[in-house]
Write a structure and sequence with these properties.
There is one protein chain. The protein is mainly alpha-helical. It has a domain at 1-202. Helix content is 75%, strand content 0%. The chain contains 19 helices and no strands. α1 packs antiparallel against α18 and α11 (281-310) packs antiparallel against α12 (319-339). The longest helix is centred in the middle third of the chain and has 30 residues, at 281-310. The radius of gyration is 22 Å and the shape is globular. The model has no long low-confidence stretch (mean pLDDT 85).
């Protein structure tokens, strides 16, 4: 029996793919369509493997595989980036967009081949579709990429394979196959770029804040892998292990990460960071304001836990309570986007490092705060946190930050894109901070008409669309750099499509929705 919500989700993704390629039609369009068709069929094989427990690793079982929506994100991002940079005449980043699109297609195809290979009996029709899609993609790559670009694509694929085996073994039930594809593919890209730029420091191009992002992401992932392996052989909850954890963190930070960053930016990283953060009066005001918001978020956590302690029955945070953090994040990001996007870029990187480091302390029960964090955060768990890690708050930060980090600054004259592209940095704010929040709050309190096969409501989706349109109007009023050039119909269609995706997807919407809205706006 076919899963109707899955079919609707797939239809929404196909519409997004076709919308992109009605604007951008070239040789890569055939590749993207072929990839989408084969991913649609292969995701049913992944779903069957998850249901019978036949997948190689343990995935999150409360959702479908999510292969189709995840498979299309990176290829579409690369294609729209290529077109934007081609229009701006930036050849280097145009070629980089082609590499990103090609790598995304090849990695998604690899994951599809894995699913087909371990399905018994072998699905003949799906194998044929996968073979046709693979032939189209490889043929296009052969006639589009230089030898060095082919090597770069294969490097990312190799890193993806090894990271998948490591992370999926160490973190069971934390991801669906689609979420694993997005997260591990992103880390693989970052690691490959960092290695490439480290080996060619003289020739490497980029802003110091880009290097800061690369080194920070690789550093925290490397830290987690090292400690996960070490604590397989020792109890992480003792004071000796905790002291070892803090000492090794200091050694890796000061002895590896800091020198690595120094090599890339050619200056002392600490002095550079302090000078950057306190460079202008506006930045000082923003930092003070963000500190107050962080304190208020901590206050919500402590208050809800005190409320739980005072009640005899088991207390769990409601949907509305969890959305408090969405409101706080919106209040954090909007001033940064309006007044100083570079500061927001760096602050989001620092916040990501802090979130992941605190999650390590909670997961490994590092003294003196590990057990306390476990108790405090357990209140906010939901069905998506079925693995050993709590990732929803990290996904929220990533969803808000990725449009800022992935914004093609070199291809944007005067720091902004034309038309609907001017809203690209606001994709996370619109899709997650406004749309998802209003859909959840109104849907859980007033919604009565449910979308077929889901718990989401029609009223929630309509409110999400309406709230995002109001948010766009407010952005036009307060951000003078945004000029939509009469592209209102495209913005309305993009917002509506992503809101429908929110209603039907079972993947982590905090991660998926901003990326799809960014793709639709950037094209």
């Amino acid at each position: 029996m076919l899963n109707k919500p899955l079919l609707v989700e797939s239809l929404i993704v196909f519409i997004a793919v076709l919308c992109v390629h009605t604007v951008v039609w070239d040789r890569y369009s055939w590749c993207a369509i072929a990839l989408a068709v084969q991913a649609f069929y292969v995701q049913f094989k992944w779903d069957s493997l998850l249901q019978i427990g036949g997948a190689v690793f343990q995935f999150r079982t409360t959702a479908n595989s999510g292969l189709l929506p995840a498979s299309m994100v990176v290829p579409l991002l690369g294609i729209v980036m290529k077109e934007r940079c081609k229009s701006a005449g930036i050849v280097f980043f145009e070629r980089f967009g082609i590499v990103v699109a090609s790598t995304g297609m090849l990695v998604a195809l690899f994951l599809s081949v894995i699913a087909v290979g371990i399905t018994k009996p072998v699905p003949t029709n799906t194998c044929i579709l996968t073979g046709i899609a693979g032939s189209i993609i490889i043929y296009t790559m052969k006639h589009s990429l230089t030898v060095s670009e082919v090597i770069e694509v294969l490097e990312v694929l190799l890193i993806f394979v090894y990271l998948s085996m490591i992370l999926l073994y160490l973190l069971p039930r934390c991801f669906t196959p689609g979420e694993a594809l997005l997260v591990i593919e992103g880390i693989s890209f970052v690691l490959n770029q960092l290695i490439k730029r480290s080996l060619n420091v003289v020739e490497s191009r980029g802003d110091p804040i880009d290097f800061f992002l690369l080194v920070t992401v690789v550093g925290v992932v490397l830290l987690g892998i090292i400690f996960t392996v070490l604590f397989l052989f020792m109890d992480s909850g003792t004071w000796i292990s905790s002291m070892f954890f803090h000492m090794m963190t200091a050694v890796l930070g000061l002895g590896v990460i800091m020198p690595w960053l120094y090599r890339l930016i050619q200056r002392n990283p600490l002095f550079w960071l302090l000078q950057f953060l306190f460079q202008t009066q506006t930045r000082i005001y923003l930092l003070v304001y963000w500190t107050m918001l962080a304190a208020s978020a901590c206050g919500v956590v402590f208050y809800q836990n005190a409320k739980r302690s005072s009640e005899s029955k088991k207390h769990q945070a409601s949907t509305i309570t969890r959305k408090y953090f969405h409101f706080i994040v919106v209040a954090t990001y909007v001033p940064g986007l309006i007044y100083d996007r570079q500061l927001l870029y760096v602050a989001a990187v620092l916040c990501l490092a802090v979130f992941i480091f605190l999650e390590y302390i909670r997961y490994f029960r590092i003294k003196p705060f590990g057990q306390t964090l476990r108790h405090l955060l357990s209140l906010f768990l939901d069905e998506r946190d079925s693995g050993p890690l709590i990732l929803t708050h990290i996904y929220l930060l990533l969803g808000m930050s990725l449009p800022v980090w992935l914004f093609p600054r070199p291809c944007a004259p005067k720091g902004t894109l034309s038309g609907a592209g001017a809203l690209v940095p606001y994709s996370g704010v619109l899709a997650v901070g406004v749309g998802d929040t209003m859909a959840s709050v109104l849907g859980s309190t007033m919604g009565e008409i449910k979308w077929p096969g889901t718990k989401k409501t029609f009223e929630g989706t309509m409110m999400a669309i309406f709230a995002q349109i109001i948010a766009v109007a407010l952005i036009l009023i307060f951000d003078s750099s945004v000029n939509l050039n009469s592209s209102y119909a495209w913005i309305l269609g993009s917002v509506s499509l992503v809101s429908l995706l929110e209603a039907y997807t079972t993947q982590i919407d905090n991660l998926l929705l901003p990326l799809y809205l960014q793709i639709m706006l950037m094209v």
